[in-house]
Amino acid sequence: MATVIGFGGNQSGTSRAIPSSQIEKGIEQKLKAGGVEAIDNLGADRAAHAAASLAGPPAIGQWRIDRLARIAIDGQAHDVLREIDDLARAGMSAPTLFVDLLAPVARRLGDLWEDDRLDFIEVTMGLWRLQEVLREIAGHAPRAPAPHMPRTGLFTLLPEDVHSFGVAMVHECFVLAGWQAELLVAATRGEILSAVAASHLDLFGLTVANDSHIGPAQSLIRAVRSVSMNPNVRIMVGGPVLTRNPGLLAQIGADAMADDAIAAVKVGERLVDAVRLAAPA
């Protein structure tokens, strides 16, 4: 499974870890203060916006990504939805909106944090708004019919990872593709393993955000295989650290990886269908 943000990592694949208790306290303080402060115009040029609108079919350019990043911080989810309405009306699919627009906006927020232009709480609140947009779009998008034998999957992130936007995006893409897919976030290792042991899963998807998560991911994957009700469960991973270094796939012990949520669905289907074809009649 591929997460498509990974903004917590810099070039070395490390990240600035902040305890969840500090995040919650900071968010509460921001809300009591009346919301986040406006940030600088991120280079989103209104003239460029108008020119692009007159040029023909809507296109996703950096100007739109920058503008939506600002709106995610300054505004609300419905403000973001209004800004992308032209793309949806033009027929852009929900998965494409997720991967080609929302994911780059999330990465942009992360870049601004790395550059100290936003604080961690502002980024977290921006991602919350993007996740609201994600759910809203997915809730109105057409779903593929489930096959006679539905494919099942569980998607999660390591307990050490505090941001669930990427794995939520992957989960929604699998649901839209007709999978019986579950999303597990803010879970302990024990809760993850209990969920795996409780049902017959075809696919287990795990986000790996940075280098410091390689060891915990490797350990969790071994445990997943040992407790899974399905001895042939397939495991897919993704994340910025794997995108930078695909050779880590074998080290982690997963069966496959994908670079984005759309690719993850295709890879997941191939993995599961291959197991079913090989099974005795």
TrEMBL record:
<protein>
    <submittedName>
        <fullName>Cobalamin B12-binding protein</fullName>
    </submittedName>
</protein>
<dbReference type="GO" id="GO:0046872">
    <property type="term" value="F:metal ion binding"/>
</dbReference>
<dbReference type="Pfam" id="PF02607">
    <property type="entry name" value="B12-binding_2"/>
</dbReference>
<dbReference type="Pfam" id="PF02310">
    <property type="entry name" value="B12-binding"/>
</dbReference>
<dbReference type="InterPro" id="IPR003759">
    <property type="entry name" value="Cbl-bd_cap"/>
</dbReference>
<dbReference type="InterPro" id="IPR036724">
    <property type="entry name" value="Cobalamin-bd_sf"/>
</dbReference>
<dbReference type="GO" id="GO:0031419">
    <property type="term" value="F:cobalamin binding"/>
</dbReference>
<feature type="domain" description="B12-binding">
    <location>
        <begin position="150"/>
        <end position="281"/>
    </location>
</feature>
<dbReference type="InterPro" id="IPR006158">
    <property type="entry name" value="Cobalamin-bd"/>
</dbReference>
